[in-house]
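Summary of Year 1 activities. Much of the first year was spent building the evaluation harness for sequence design. The harness presents a backbone, in tokenized form, and records the residue chosen at every position. We chose the following record to illustrate the format because it has been used consistently in internal testing since the harness was completed.
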């Protein structure tokens, strides 16, 4: 049996931009992507703590050490700059392997979105 489990979590980062006129996706500081083991193009779930919205899109890397969290395209309508979001990715794995799997969980600085 296969199940879906949390693979990565970036906990409580602030949205730094919302660009409606972009093709789509979320831009994430590449340092945060590395720390959470997230790759370019990976499907991601975004949970907005400010308004309860949940949405899915894909990841594109942002400039390192900038703390960028930018929602692009239609997703930009579901956030405001300054909103606090939690980002999740998931993996499908064998049930027994999932019992011992440990996800990558990152707690960046909530003011700068940078790793401390």
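For this record, the design step produced the sequence shown next.
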């Amino acid at each position: 049996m296969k199940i879906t489990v949390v693979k990565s979590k970036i906990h409580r980062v602030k949205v730094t931009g919302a660009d409606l006129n972009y093709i789509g996706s979320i831009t994430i500081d590449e340092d945060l992507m590395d720390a959470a083991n997230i790759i370019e193009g990976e499907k991601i779930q975004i949970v907005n703590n400010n308004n309860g919205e949940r949405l899915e899109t894909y990841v594109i890397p942002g400039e390192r050490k900038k703390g960028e969290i930018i929602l692009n395209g239609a997703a930009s309508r579901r956030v405001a700059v300054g909103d606090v979001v939690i980002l999740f990715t998931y993996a499908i794995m064998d049930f027994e392997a999932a019992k011992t799997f440990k996800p990558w969980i990152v707690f960046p600085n909530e003011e700068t979105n940078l790793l401390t």
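Residues 2 and 93 are 5 Å apart (CA to CA). Quantitative recovery figures across the full test set are reported in Table 2.
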